[in-house]
Specification:
Length: about 675
């Protein structure tokens, strides 16, 4: 590291350096008040009130040198440095406007331009601002003011504010006096060596100002210590694509979404949910471990793809429209905890490991799991960390068992494996008992249930503006108290019962208020299109009995819409054995399970045969069409694992004919499985 104090314009007079504001820095953010403060400090020097002013640090690292042009990436001081260049451009342009071309060109040559040639016009500029600000600054630097449309850019606004202020100075002082005053502004320049950790220094600098968000630190870590050309390329090719998914209609990035995405991205890769406070450090460890094995661009491409998955789940990407109804339910449940698992499932779908029906079933399973737990008020934090582990278990077991069973495997690890844990799936009896007596009006997921219930309505309606309404009103009246038997305690119990609730729009809500049942019925019947209200306005009375009956009806509908599920197999107790095909030149490997099913593994060879029974020949054609098997000149190759229900079936599939499969395979010790594994399995 090298550092020294220097006068501002002496620092900028140096020939060769170009100060580059890296893409990982924040945009130019100085408001008018910040600029006015600097101008006031310079003006105080100009009029003799003060002798000097300390502006602050300019910290940079030299990232490249070409034909005497030294690229200096600014680590700290980019806001003040950019403003100083705007002041110099304003002085130059005032001189041009007044016909003082000699003075204007001197300012241009001494402070604003590099007299070196690299073949790139922009390399002559001593400041290269952030990509987002570059276009406006370039037009100001090149005096192309007619090309600047109405702009909200702070670069644009501050330049003209500075120019208007300096015009009054130029009426009383010469350009030389103004620049001389600017040169009494002092800075400390700090040049970092290449082998110093610029990122660590950058982090320590930014703890003194507005703290950077974790996703900003991640961006900086990826892009820092690269030359400007490489930074800009990676920024445009990858980081902008990531940001695009997180920009809403207002073109504004929500930091919370970005940080949650990176947290869940790591969870889907590491199979553990990282704490929010450890996100940045965990990402650095992950990044460094990955770049030791593959290129940075491969990792960045993966992050871009996962950003798309996050946007499909929670933002405005509609790439998987067939999932949209389930995604809407997921959003209404209002828990992002399943995100690592669901992003992993979306990747399996994109890589064609699973089909549309499978991924749709998995989304339904996850929504069912979430809403059944929430409806009985089981805390979400008790399942917050199960989803990364769920993804790991499902992938490991599918690699072992086959992806055709992924739905059942998901059921097993979400339900069966959690039966004795706090993350259990509530059974029908618990839900029914709970919903019969609970104050359902305070349960958030009741509205989600009503939403799903109304989507079954053949009449399409906009459910979003509807709210939950109580038929028996919250505040009792003599009429309603009498309807409930005149008992205040009974009234309190039944007011919040599930059967006393429905959906209504704002106007119907206002009309119903505390009115008598006949008035409420007519109001609900006039709306008509809300299907779940039909049994209310068709009922002659509204009392304890009718509320109890409707409560049970709604419970039955809930259990039908979100049914309990469990797996067909206990996947943790099933043992598998590695076996090898041992007949002819055909090479195949597989896993044999205790139920005698077989997982034929990727890379296995399927023999071309005219002697394959029709059902297996049709199966082969289907696998080829699905891309699971690839045809070669002499045989077929499995591109994915495929599961079969019996050893003879898989044997006849890969070899043709009709064979006793137990005689065609060896175990890991080279013994024919008819003599070893078959007897072992039977003994169990």
């Amino acid at each position: 590291m090298d550092a020294n104090r220097i006068n501002l314009l002496d620092f900028l007079m140096q020939t060769g350096p170009q100060y580059v504001i890296p893409v990982y820095q924040r945009n130019y953010t100085w408001k008018e008040r910040n600029v006015k403060k600097l101008l006031d400090d310079i003006h105080n020097i100009l009029i003799g009130d003060t002798k000097a002013h300390f502006l602050g640090n300019i910290i940079y690292i030299i990232t490249s040198t070409r034909n005497l042009l030294q690229e200096r990436a600014v680590v700290d001081g980019q806001q003040r440095l950019t403003t100083v260049f705007l002041i110099l451009h304003a002085i130059r342009d005032i001189a041009y406007d007044c016909g003082d071309n000699y003075d204007a060109e001197n300012i241009q040559l001494i402070y604003l331009s590099n007299n070196v040639s690299t073949g790139d016009k922009d390399s002559k500029k001593k400041l290269k601002p952030l990509v987002n600000d570059d276009d406006i600054y370039r037009k100001i630097a090149d005096r192309e003011f007619d090309d600047i449309k109405s702009s909200n850019s702070l670069i644009y606004k501050n330049y003209f504010m500075i120019k208007n202020e300096l015009k009054s100075w130029a009426e009383e002082y010469s350009y030389g006096e103004i620049t001389a005053a600017m040169n009494k502004v002092l800075i400390v320049w700090v040049q970092l060596d290449k082998d110093e950790d610029a990122q660590r220094i950058f982090e320590s600098i930014n703890t003194t100002g507005e703290p950077l968000k974790a996703f900003e630190l991640i961006r900086n870590y990826i892009l820092m210590n690269k030359n400007d050309e490489e930074q800009v390329r990676l920024y445009k090719d990858y980081w902008l694509k990531i940001e695009k998914y997180f920009k809403g209609s207002g073109n504004h990035i929500e930091p919370k979404d970005m940080e949650e995405f990176f947290r869940f991205y790591l969870a889907s890769k590491l199979y553990i949910l990282i704490s929010k406070n450890d996100l940045y450090n965990s990402f650095k460890r992950y990044w460094n471990e990955r770049v030791s094995k593959q290129s940075e661009e491969v990792i960045l491409k993966d992050i871009v793809i996962y950003a798309k998955y996050y946007a499909i789940l929670f933002l405005e990407c509609r790439e998987c429209d067939f999932l949209y109804e389930q995604i809407k339910i997921l959003r209404k449940i209002n828990s992002n905890m399943p995100t690592p698992f669901l992003m992993g499932i979306l990747e399996l779908f994109e890589h064609q490991k699973i089909n549309k029906q499978q991924i749709l079933s998995i989304f339904k399973i996850v929504n069912t799991y979430m809403i059944r737990r929430s409806i009985v008020s089981e805390q979400a934090n008790s399942v917050s960390r199960i989803y990364p582990t769920l993804l790991k278990n499902v992938i490991v077991k599918c690699n072992d068992w086959g992806y055709e069973d992924i739905v059942d495997i998901t059921k097993y690890y979400l339900c069966d494996a959690n039966k004795q844990k706090s993350s259990y799936l509530p059974m029908d009896e618990q839900i029914s008992t709970y919903l019969k007596t609970i104050n359902a009006g305070v349960i958030d997921q009741v509205r989600t249930f009503f939403y799903v219930l109304e989507t079954q309505n053949p009449i399409e309606i906009n459910i979003e503006p509807l709210t939950v309404e109580h038929v028996l009103p919250q505040t009792s009246t003599p009429y309603w108290l009498n309807a409930m038997g005149g008992n205040d305690e009974t009234y309190e119990k039944y007011f919040g019962r599930l059967g006393n609730l429905t959906l209504a729009d704002k106007s119907t809500n206002s009309e119903m208020s505390n009115k008598d049942f006949d008035i409420k019925k007519r109001a609900l019947e006039r709306v008509g299109r809300i299907n779940m209200s039909k049994d209310i306005y068709e009922s002659p009375v509204w009392n304890c009995e009718t509320i109890d009956k409707r409560t049970q009806t709604l419970i039955d509908k809930f259990l039908m819409l979100f049914p309990y599920f469990k797996a067909e197999l206990d996947y943790d107790s099933i043992t598998s054995y590695k076996i090898d095909f041992c007949h002819g030149d055909t090479i195949a490997t597989a896993l044999l399970y205790e139920d005698s099913s077989v997982l034929l593994q990727e890379g296995s060879v399927v023999r071309k045969s005219e002697n394959r029974v029709k059902v297996l020949a049709n199966m082969l054609d289907e696998f080829i069409d699905n891309g699971q098997i690839e045809e070669n000149e002499n045989d077929y190759i499995l591109k994915d694992d495929i599961r079969f229900n019996a050893i003879s079936t898989v044997t006849n599939f890969i070899y043709g004919g009709s064979n006793n499969g137990w005689e065609y395979w060896n175990d890991e010790n080279g013994v024919v499985i008819n003599e070893s594994l078959r007897k072992l399995i039977k003994s169990k």
